[in-house]
Amino acid sequence: DIQMTQSPSSLSASVGDRVTITCRAGQSISSYLNWYQQKPGKAPKLLIYITSTLQSGVPSRFSGSGSGTDFTLTISSLQPEDFATYYCQQSYSTPYTFGQGTKLEIK
Amino acid sequence: QVQLQESGPGLVKPSETLSLICTVSGGSISTYYWSWIRQPPGQGLEWIGYVYYSGSTNYNPSLKSRVTISVDMSKNQFSLKLSSVTAADTAVYYCARAGSSGYVHYWGQGTLVTVSS
Q1: DSSP output for B34-94
Q2: CB-based contact (8 Å) between B84 and chain A?
Q3: Residue pairs spanning A and B at CB distance below 8 A
Q4: Which residues of chain B make contact with A101, given a CB cutoff of 8 A?
Q5: What's the CA gap between A101 and B43, in Å, rounded?
Q6: What radius of gyration do chain A's Cα atoms show?
Q7: Cα–Cα distance between B68 and A65 in angstroms, integer?
Q8: Which residue of A87, A96, A97 to mutate against B (max B Cβ within 10 Å)?
Q9: Which of B64, B75, B89, B94 is within CB 3.0–4.6 Å of B59 for a Cys-Cys bond?
């Protein structure tokens, strides 16, 4: 299995801040890295797929980059609705695996 | 707009079989990879496996000996069976639709299944 490691595990930030979450794969996954946002009691929501493609309807303040083993999710200016838990997922090979999550909290 | 809805018992006894159905509406079940993903309370996400509309399957090796995922195109449904469950299988179970590149485009709302006597 390909291990996915996110950092940090939790993050406190303020509205308007620029935030970056990192995801590292245990081996190269090319560009097969996806990002999800999950709010309490809700299903995850796809934000970005194949490293940097923004899912339809997702605000442009979200962006993704990287390749190989190192990837980032950036939120350019945090909004109140962005406080949630974020997961990365590799879809390079099965079993697909997720990072442990990054909980983004209000400072 | 595609919608997915899980259904099944919320409580299963240890050693028994967990059975869930996912009903797909707003689109055909043909094409795509129909998946199950679970999330233990307060924990992260675990991919269980998928069934392609043709019936071919791919399971997480950690669960492979206990999992069966199948599709019923006539009902626009797919299902999950997980045998010999223990308390460690207590989780919110999500059904989902994934594309060929493996990202999950649509999710069900999730259903909590508790394993307890």
Answers
A1: EEEEEE-TTS--EEEEEEETTS-EEE-TTTTTTEEEEEETTTTEEEEEE-S--GGG-EEEE
A2: no
A3: 60
A4: 44-45
A5: 9
A6: 13
A7: 36
A8: A96
A9: B64
d(CA B15, nearest CA chain A) in Å = 25
Which amino acid appears at position A66 of this protein? Answer: G
Inspect the interface and report whether the beta carbons of A50 and B108 lie closer than 8 Å.
no
3-state secondary structure of A62: strand
pLDDT band at B105 (very low <50, low <70, confident <90, very high): very high
**In this predicted structure, what is the pLDDT of residue B31?**
86
User: Encoding tokens for residue B29?
Assistant: 């079940």
The amino acid occupying position B78 is F
pLDDT tens-digit readout, A47-104: 999 999 999 999 999 999 999 999 999 999 999 999 999 999 999 999 999 999 999 9
Token digits of residue A90: 């590799």
Per DSSP (E only), the strands in A1-107 are: 4-7, 10-13, 19-25, 33-38, 45-49, 53-54, 62-67, 70-75, 85-90, 97-98, 102-106
Tens of pLDDT, residues A41-50? 999 999 999 9
| B18 close to A (CB below 8 A) | no
